[in-house]
Specification:
This protein has 515 residues and is an alpha+beta fold. It contains 21 helices and 17 strands. It starts with a strand and ends in an 18-residue tail after the last helix.
Length: 515
């Protein structure tokens, strides 16, 4: 929805702050560069109008008495129900107003627990000079932060914080994570001074506190009717919008279910001329009567576009298909400002079947075997691999450890990739399979239910067999790699583009030489 920036640093001039905010203009080109100052505190916002598109909803948004100010990125889908439940009149028709008023009425962290949505926001109290920062349960919306004593910066993108700091150093742990696992974990970024604000947490009075975590323990699976209703509700919530909504439609099971239930006009897919899933996406599109768009990417376009994305963001791309997401979403923007996507289904229903079969058949979690199945880098760095899995050992069995790791840590990387690629195009991506009601309900459900008789995503195929074309029900799950990129080349390309060649000690590969 937007880009937010909040700083308590006393030495940041207004001009420098606005230059940092400008780096995120693509996140909110409809009402860009809104900025207020209160003492040393500065708050900025770039707005992408989605819900409540009137000027009253612009941010930074003030409470009626001007005491509280909020900058907010995301969507709270149940805001109208909450407004009715707590008798809160909405003058703007926007969830921003509901978030601030409900926070004042029942308490800041108490309000967060009521929200169904994706969000990252900061509320500032102009009387006490205190602030409250929070991020949604699964980290769907990004939030980066810098902390030095009492001074903090919060931003929707890393590049904005970099522009406010005079000096940064490479985080060796973050670099090792990226080299080995193509992603960042446990709050690390490429830079020692900047962290990823943890999902399911809030920061208040100088303390970081958790307000949500994935439930532990076993539970009985839902009935087919309950599962159907949960997924339909999650999709319908994410269609709430005052601007046009479309759907990604790869022709895989997850995106096909979302597109079938949503019933939106425009659907979108992407591929190379000689490697794509167009046959299946066309099949689904014909079944649903959508206006379908096939975006064809030429190999010659790939590396120049990837280079521009890395330079713009000042951090490495996660995987090569992030470039394809971006190029597809540039076309999406011509018709839709909101797009629905299928991320999260693989984590819920053990779609990564090879590694989940391993976990279901082993008595003890072996980190070396996990690394062989999960890692992408060729270097042997088990210390890093163990450090990213260790927070999930509390879930007990190898299968439960793996399920929690994928639901929280692995999914977070996919969500960052999706948000980065779509918001660079000023498009908001929404992910129904990350609805926290669905995630909580399926946590701890047994392997035999999620993969009945070895069938990948069996519950989804069974529950939605009447609306998903049979060839899609029966097709094998496939990923979508970029065929001409290998992992070590991808790591080197990202480091070279960031001007960090000396950190990896590899010469440029001829795949991208001459860029």
């Amino acid at each position: 929805m937007c880009g937010i920036l909040f700083s308590t640093l006393a030495n940041i001039t207004q001009k420098r702050f606005e230059c940092a905010l400008e780096k995120m203009r693509h996140r909110g080109p409809d009402v860009p560069m809104c900025h207020i100052t209160h003492g040393k505190v500065q708050m900025g916002h770039n707005r992408l109008r989605i819900v409540g598109i009137n000027e009253q909803s612009n941010q930074p948004y003030f409470s009626h008495d001007k005491r509280y100010i909020i900058v907010y990125n995301g969507e709270v889908y149940n805001f109208r129900e909450l407004a009715a439940q707590y008798a809160i009149p909405l003058e703007t028709g926007c969830d921003t107003e509901l978030i601030l008023k409900l926070s004042i009425k029942i308490g800041f962290h108490q309000a967060v627990e009521q929200f169904n949505g994706m969000f990252a926001y900061v509320i500032f109290d102009t009387i006490t000079n205190s602030f409250f920062a929070v991020r949604d349960r699964l980290g769907i919306k990004p939030l980066y932060w810098y902390q030095n004593g009492a001074d903090v910066i919060f931003a929707s993108e890393l590049s904005a914080i970099l522009s406010l700091l005079d000096k940064t150093e490479i985080d060796e742990i973050g670099l090792r994570q990226y080299r080995k696992l193509r992603a960042f974990f446990n709050g690390h970024t490429l830079y020692k001074q900047i962290q990823i604000f943890p999902a399911g947490h809030y920061f208040e009075n100088g303390e970081l506190k958790r307000y949500w975590e994935l439930p532990q323990g076993e539970q009985e699976p839902p009935s087919d009717e309950e599962l159907h209703n949960l997924i339909v509700s999650a999709i319908q919530y994410r269609q709430i919008s005052d601007v046009p909504v479309g759907c990604y439609l790869s022709g895989g099971l997850d995106s096909t279910i979302v597109a079938a239930i949503a019933g939106e006009l425009h659907t979108w897919t992407v591929g190379f001329p000689d490697k794509n899933e167009f046959h299946y996406s066309e099949l689904a599109s014909r079944a649903f009567g959508t206006e379908h768009h096939e975006i064809v990417v030429q190999q010659s376009d790939f590396f120049p576009v990837a280079k521009r994305m890395i330079e713009h963001r000042q951090e490495p791309l996660s995987v090569p298909n992030e470039v394809l997401l971006y190029l597809m979403t540039k076309e999406v923007k011509k018709e839709n400002t909101v797009v629905l996507s299928g991320e999260g289904a693989d984590e819920l229903f053990f779609g990564y079947d090879r590694i989940f079969r391993w976990a279901s058949n082993t008595a003890q979690f072996d980190i070396r075997e996990f690394s062989q199945l999960y890692s992408y880098g060729t270097n042997d760095d088990l210390e890093i691999v163990e450090s990213v899995v260790e927070p999930f050992y509390q879930y007990g069995s190898p299968l439960n450890i793996l399920a929690a790791f994928f639901q929280i840590a692995h999914l977070h990387g996919l969500l960052r990739r999706l948000d980065n690629a779509t918001m660079m195009c000023s498009v908001e991506a929404r992910v129904p399979f990350t609805d926290h009601r669905l995630v909580e309900r399926l946590a701890g459900c047994p392997y035999w239910w999620r993969m009945p008789n070895g069938q990948v995503k069996g519950p989804l195929k069974r529950v939605f067999q009447d609306i998903v074309p049979q060839p899609i029900i029966c097709r094998e799950k496939v990923g979508f790699p970029v065929p001409f990129v290998v992992y070590d080349d991808w790591f080197s390309f990202n480091m070279q583009t960031l001007g960090l060649e000396t950190l990896h000690g590899k010469e440029s590969n001829n795949l991208y030489a001459g860029l």
